[in-house]
Amino acid sequence: MYRIGEEEVEEVRKVLLSGRLFRVGEGMEGHLHEVDQFEREWAETIGTKYALCMAGGGTAALICGLVGMGIGPGDEVIVPGYTWMASATAVLAVGAIPVIAEVDETLTLDPEDVRRKMSPNVRAIIPVHMVGRACNLQAIPNIAREHGLMVLEDCAQAVGGSYAGRRLGSWGHAGAFSFNYFKIISCGEGGALNTNDRMLYERALIYHDGGATFRPFAKDLQVPIFVGLQLRADEVMGAILRVQLRRLDGILSDLRRIRKRFEQELSEGGLRIAPNNDPEGDCGVAVAVQFPSEPQARAFATAPGVNGWLPIDSGKHVYSNWEPLLQKRVMHHPDMNPFNHPRNQGLRTEYTPEMCPHTLDILRRTVFISLHPDWSEDEVTRRIEACWAAAKEAVAG
Ligand SMILES: Cc1ncc(COP(=O)(O)O)c(C=O)c1O
To answer: Which end of the chain is more exposed for a tag (fewer CB within 10 A), N or C?
Structure first.
């Protein structure tokens, strides 16, 4: 979250004083609910027919997306080895098996490795737009079409970003977003699922609302109501998100302007900027610089004034640190552990910390410099100069 202020306070205040904190409006005809309005605005922003806002964050949105796609035991889902662990654990939460694939130098899912990892059991691909950077949305949907697979975009770290001029989250069969505290816009926690597919939307809607049977919208549903969870958003979340949404394009344009300056001036200073599937659509949350070796990357990242970080150090964003998954400790009961499910026997369930060596190599040689939309031009100049000085040292060292 980059910006928050009195506007959010005012909207939350109105919701609290109205006493109407529940998103569903039995007996409130004519009352405009914040969550309903946010969903309409969010669907329009992303360019999809439907948006479902929910508690439970991007994790819940991914799970609802997979539920909406009908993914379950017997299915494999391809996820990249560089992503927050939830992209893979969401697959387990619906009873399916994640197959971990390499990222390429763009830091996103490598289409070539997706092809190599294809099997008749693969039902879906989760391309993750990491650190504001779009995946290759030409190649990945093509592979999916060739093999009749679903595509669930994980847009948690790229809220508002785009590819070829179209917003992320509108390219796949569904897109999952996170509004947790660390994301581009935030209501503390929370997420959203976007799709054009009515049946997918209905299944996700039912799954996320344990009381769906009793809602006014129940009569309009074509999917028979089944037992799910309780992940409903509340009106305070809706009110905050509506204000945050109004800030989104301003945040993105400031981040992008700063990122452009960094990239241009760092390449002039001899640094190698990581390749990007769509530099224009990048959210601009960070600049990625790549080095021939890890020691050079570390020397650069830790030099005075650079404030860089190596993705290999980012804990549960690296598959080799996903211990509960690697050790197959899933769910509270052995019979609910997808690794024990009869339909998953024979799928690819063997994981090792070394299984995506190319990913580990790239994550060790890349340095991210996180950016902030409120930096002044002077501040940006100071930081770029620090990078130039560090680059000389790193390359010389
Ligand atoms: C790529 C990615 N996917 C999914 C998630 C899950 O989002 P949340 O924490 O809102 O559940 C995150 C959150 O950090 C993420 O970075």
So the answer is: C
In this prediction, residues 245-262 reach a mean pLDDT of 98
Is 140:133 a contact under the CB 8 Å cutoff? no
Q: pLDDT tens digits, residue range 288-313?
A: 999 999 999 999 999 999 999 999 99
Strands of the sheet with 97-101, listed across from one edge: 50-54, 191-195, 174-178, 150-154, 122-125, 76-80, 97-101
pTM, entire model: 0.98
SS3 of residue 159 by DSSP: coil
Distance of alpha carbon 129 from alpha carbon 45, whole angstroms: 17
Strands (E) located in 55-145: 76-80, 97-101, 122-125
- Render 216-241 in DSSP notation, one character per residue: GGGGG-SSPP----B-B--HHHHHHH
186 CB neighbour count, 10 Å cutoff: 20
DSSP 268: H
Spacing, Cα 392 to ligand 1 middle (Å):
36
Say if residue 29 is exposed, middle or buried (CB neighbours under 10 Å; 0-12, 13-18, 19+).
Answer: exposed
Closest CA to 108 of 267, 274, 261: 274
Q: Whose Cα sits closest to atom 10 in ligand 1? A: 57
DSSP line for 36-81: HHHHHHHHHHHT-SEEEEESSHHHHHHHHHHHHHT--TT-EEEEES
Q: Which atom of ligand 1 is nearest to the CA of 128?
A: 1
**Residue type present at position 12:** V
Q: For ligand 1, atom 14, which residue shows the shortest CA distance?
A: 84
Does the Cβ of 156 fall within 6 Å of ligand 1? yes
296 lines ligand 1 (CB under 6 A): no
- Summarised one tens digit per residue, pLDDT across range 213-238 is 999 889 999 999 999 999 999 999 99
Q: 156 CA to middle of ligand 1, Å? A: 5
* C-beta of 59 in contact with ligand 1 (< 6 A): yes
Tokens 């306070």 sit on residue: 9
Predicted local confidence at residue 397, as pLDDT: 56
End-to-end Cα, the chain, rounded Å: 36
Note the pLDDT tens digit of each residue in 63-105.
999 999 999 999 999 999 999 999 999 999 999 999 999 999 9
